[in-house]
Amino acid sequence: MSRPMRKNSYLPIAAFFLLGLIWGSNFIYMKLAASLIAPLQIVFLRVLFGFLPVLVYASLSGSLAWRHLRHIRHFFVMALLATTLYYYAYVKGTSLLLSGVAGAVSGSIPLFSFVLALLFLPGEKKTTSRIVGLIIGLLGVIVIGRPSGEQLLSTNLQGVLYIVAGSLSVGASFVYARKYISPLQIPAAALTTYQLGIGLAMLAIVTDYTGIGKIWTDVHASIGMIVGLGLLGTGGAYIIYYYIIERLGAVAASSVSYIPPVVALFIGAFIVGEPIEWLDYVATITIFAGVFLLKRG
Predict the structure, then answer these.
(1) pLDDT-above-90 percentage for the chain
(2) How far is it between the farthest Cα atoms of the chain?
(3) Cα angle 98-104-109, degrees, rounded to a multiple of 5
(4) Cα distance between residue 56 and residue 212, in whole Å
(5) Given a cut of 70, is residue 101 above it in pLDDT?
(6) Does residue 27 register a pLDDT over 90?
(7) Rounded to whole angstroms, how far apart are CA atoms 47 and 199?
């Protein structure tokens, strides 16, 4: 094998870990922004700065076509499930949790995707390994969302419930995409452009812009918003994700979900200094174990 080919063979692997690093760092950026502006404002800015690189990429690759608009109802559903509701729930949950804990709970996305697939996709296999994995993974979510203090609905539990709601939303989008979007044979770059574009339009209508300028008063928060959450965390991440699917396949690409929780916990505990408890690490490992059995099944 020639030297250039050997270098190129490492690019998908490098992209795989880069994507995990990008997605895992999203939680600290959301946490920083949430101290200055409202969750819906964060989602609006994230989608705005994420939409731009995707639009440019899709345009240059020739993926966009007017004929795709006859399927706009499906793009609307995807924008609702995989952009607006998903991002809002994650921002709201992260604002109530330690960023590392929020990232750990996000590792449960495959669990909820499986539950919804069982309910709405008749061909989905229901094996013993998968059922056990689901139970173990959900146990991890329950442990990490344990109520603290005397009140049952503590801030910790509310935050976890928001992350779970976001995971359910994006999980529902996977099931919807498999049933209604995949058969359309539309390029992934085009689908992402339509999804983010419609999501941006929806957010532009419902967002209250009062005080949104406060994000620019903090250098770290503003850079995290534009670069971390927008350009890289949304636009760049989608482009990298589809590159990985093309080079390594969809199954391998889906395994990237193991990396963000680890990255988020590392940033929260060792860089930011969040007081993450040992039980949170145990719960994260439990969620990983459940997801592993689910994918193995």
Answers:
(1) 48
(2) 65
(3) 130
(4) 26
(5) yes
(6) yes
(7) 8
